[in-house]
Design a protein that fits this description.
Layout: H1 3-10, E1 19-22, H2 28-38, E2 42-47, H3 67-72, E3 76-80, H4 86-97, E4 101-104, H5 110-113, H6 118-124, E5 129-134, H7 149-155, H8 158-161, H9 176-199, E6 203-208, H10 209-214, H11 220-227, E7 244-248, E8 254-258, H12 262-271, H13 275-278, H14 286-291, H15 293-304, H16 309-318, E9 323-325, H17 329-334, H18 336-340, E10 344-352, E11 355-362, H19 386-392, H20 397-405
Parallel strand pairs: 1-2, 1-4, 2-3, 4-5, 5-6
Antiparallel strand pairs: 7-8, 8-9, 10-11
Length: 409
């Protein structure tokens, strides 16, 4: 690494000086906090004194803290605080007084019951930005319903389109709704901070999990409302766009081929030895190709099934056709492009007391040229920074001991 690159990677991130208080747990609010922490914000994660965030034990293979937690909570400071006790509420308000953004993903009304609603926050900090993530939002007839990401994917329209038409709806293998909602929370918080810089006023950012999913659904409802077109599950193909699908190769591996641009389609047909299809006027545009999507998929499958996937991909790359393998985790950890882009950060992590391993963690997204984000540390131990944060609030050793005796921290 050059001296310039090293100095940039160690420099404060573009959000340095921003204080974020994270009151959430699980995935949604913590994913927003992670993004802000990656770029230098001081994110203080509040956890329950006993047990902490339940994510610590999700996908737990060894030890008492999952690597999922280490990923979702990197670069944050962890403090323990019982928000249901008046002493805990007082400490939280002191933290809010010194914070720019508060993140939370409780059911609507929870903070208000604890005496930590937006009115109480504004009494101590008029300009605070409160970013709230919930299943159905802070208003509307469903606001009080509990909602996790899987339910949001169903309500938001995604599950109805995911899978094969002769099988039940399925899901992707990640917490998609929570992660997308976290992105919207960050966008909303940063937008509100920009506005505060002009007006001096704070803001409440209301992110609903189901709306985060619904926002990804493209023309789902306009197509229905205008033309009564109800999209259905179509397996691995992309409706209304052809050819774009997953194809089996001769060695049993699958590849994804997206040959749906007009000029790309012509090149693709020549690569697979079907020049007559490249010149067929019926297939000159996407509308015609969609009408003949079955014939095109059959032609592509006949070609891929005769070749190993590596040769398929090599020929497609030479023809400048968008295509790629379906990677497993093992293949990702060995891929040179992932490594070259800094997407495989290796960190030593404590698995159990006295046992450490060097593990590949995901890198920072997006890339910045001048002030990049970086992983300063992995998700912390429960309450690792409690003493330091309370000391910053002017709470001395004696009072911290009293708070511990009361179970507040």
């Amino acid at each position: 690494m050059s001296e310039l690159s090293q100095s940039r990677s160690e420099a404060p991130g573009p959000l340095a000086g921003l204080r974020v208080l994270e009151l959430g747990n699980f995935i949604a609010a913590p994913s927003a906090g992670r993004l802000m922490a990656d770029f230098g914000a001081d994110v203080i994660k509040v956890e329950r004194p006993l047990g902490g965030d339940e994510l610590r034990r999700w996908r737990l293979h060894e030890g008492d803290t999952s690597l999922l937690f280490r990923v979702m909570n990197r670069n944050k400071r962890s403090i323990t605080l019982d928000l249901k006790q008046s002493e805990g509420r007082a400490v939280a308000l002191d933290l809010i007084r010194r914070s720019d953004v508060v993140l939370e993903n409780f059911r609507p009304g929870t903070l208000e019951r604890w005496g930590l609603g937006i009115e109480q926050m504004r009494e101590v900090n008029r300009g605070v930005i409160l970013a709230r993530i919930s299943g159905y939002g802070q208003s509307g007839p469903y606001r009080d319903r509990p909602g996790f990401g899987g339910v949001a994917e169903a309500t938001g329209g995604l599950r109805h389109l995911t899978g094969y038409p002769d099988r039940p709806p399925t899901r992707v293998g990640i917490s998609l709704a929570d992660s997308v909602a976290g992105l919207y929370a960050v966008i909303g918080a940063l937008t509100a901070l920009h506005r505060r810089g002009v007006t001096g006023q704070g803001e409440v950012v209301d992110v609903a999990l189901y709306e985060a999913v619904y926002s990804l659904m493209e023309s789902l409802t306009p197509d229905y409302d205008a033309f009564q077109v109800e999209r259905e599950r179509t397996g691995s193909s992309l409706p209304g766009i052809a050819p774009s699908n997953t194809y089996l190769c001769g060695d049993g591996r699958y590849v994804v081929i997206s040959g749906n641009g007009d000029s790309i389609f012509k090149r693709l047909m020549r690569v697979i030895g079907r020049p007559e299809l490249a010149e067929d006027p019926e297939l000159a545009d996407n509308a015609g190709r969609v009408r003949h999507a079955g014939k095109l998929d059959a032609a592509l499958s006949a070609w891929t099934e005769e070749l190993p996937h590596e040769e398929v991909l090599q020929r497609l790359e030479e023809g400048q056709i968008p295509s790629g393998p379906i990677f497993t985790a093992a293949e990702i950890t060995k891929d040179p492009h992932y490594a070259a882009r800094g997407m495989l950060e290796r960190h030593r992590v404590t698995i159990t007391p006295g046992q450490e391993r060097e593990v590949a963690f995901p890198g920072i997204v997006p890339k910045f040229t001048e002030a990049p984000g970086r992983t300063r540390w992995l998700g912390p131990e429960l309450g690792e920074h409690t003493d330091a944060v309370l000391a910053e609030l002017g709470i001395d050793d004696i009072r911290r001991g009293e708070l511990r005796d009361l179970g507040v921290v």
